[in-house]
Amino acid sequence: MTGAGLEVLRAGALTTVQDLGRFGHAALGVPRSGALDQPAHRLANRLVGNAAGAATLETTMTGVALRTSRPVMAAVTGAPAPVRVDGRPVPWAAPVRLPAGAVLEVGAASAGLRSYVAVSGGIAVEPVLGSRSTDLLSGVGPQPLADGDTLPLGGPFGHPAPADIALWQAPPRELVLPVLPGPRDDWFTPAAWRTFTSARFAVSSRSNRIGLRTEGPALERARPGELPSEGMVLGAVQVPPDGKPVVFLADCPTTGGYPVIGVVPEAHLAAAAQAVPGLPVRFVTAARRPLSAAARPAPAAAGRG
To answer: How big is the CA angle at 44 (ends 41 and 50), to the nearest 5 degrees?
Structure first.
């Protein structure tokens, strides 16, 4: 830690500190947390010369405004948004040099939901259980930003990555999520699975970092009652009593008692981070990879007659 910092002039609707996440603490009831759009987080760090694990700021919808106390490099990725330094427009998804005392403003997202602000040296709040991430479910890690907060910065240790083009996945116009069935798909009728993988849903305004909630047809249960609480994984699609699927994201609980009809592979969840309320959602059956020859069971030896 250098003692230099960022002053929060405007915290926005919800801005949190995030890194790659907090691993290995599910037994304590502590979720993984971390940046919801990990590719955007990694790109922002690469553009300013940070390691992928350095902490960034994850904004929600309305951006953030910051003043730096030392010269730094900064980059904004994720949801496209207007970026200004001392009132002058600067490039989005590109490294920008900020002199000491400069004000970096990230405006409202023009598409998508969450932008990522990386600053050379990273946000150097104290790690908790090995991560600097804010966890909205358990309250572990730093609190969401508020106007007037000051964030410490780490010492720069790299150089901005030269790039003619920064590869970036645009926020979706329709969210298509592959899903693997189970482990509790047998708690639903065959018609419910057909509805799940053919009907159109929409992102609910009640979605957050814990889960992407949906609006649409209810999925019919084949079995009454409830399960004892069991372990949950990132991407689990839980179905509460209203029958509307919920896709668990980074701050999801580590256990749950509603049946999980399927699981979205983690690689497809970054798009969910940028899904705005009302966006159409479709779930499609994910193709299972065939076993490699080395992984297939050996054929049984023929018996001797």
So the answer is: 100
Q: Residue range 144-152: average pLDDT?
A: 97
Confidence label for 167 from pLDDT (cuts 50, 70 and 90):
low
Burial 76-111 (b: 16+ CB within 10 A, else e): bbbbbbebebeeeebebbebbebeeebbbbbbebee
> What does the alpha-carbon distance between residue 204 and residue 214 come to, in Å, rounded to a whole number?
5
| Mean pLDDT confidence for 249-254 | 95
Give dist(CA 94, CA 107) in Å, integer.
16
Beta strands in 182-293 (DSSP E): 201-203, 211-215, 230-231, 236-238, 246-248, 255-256, 260-263, 280-285
Q: How distant, in Å, are the alpha carbons of 79, 125, 126, 196 from that of 156?
A: 25, 15, 17, 48
The structure tokens 């189970």 sit at 182
Pairing of strands 56-58, 115-119: antiparallel
Maximum distance among all Cα pairs of the chain, rounded to whole angstroms: 88
**Out of 157-161, 193-197, 198-202, 284-288, which region has the weakest mean confidence (pLDDT)?**
157-161
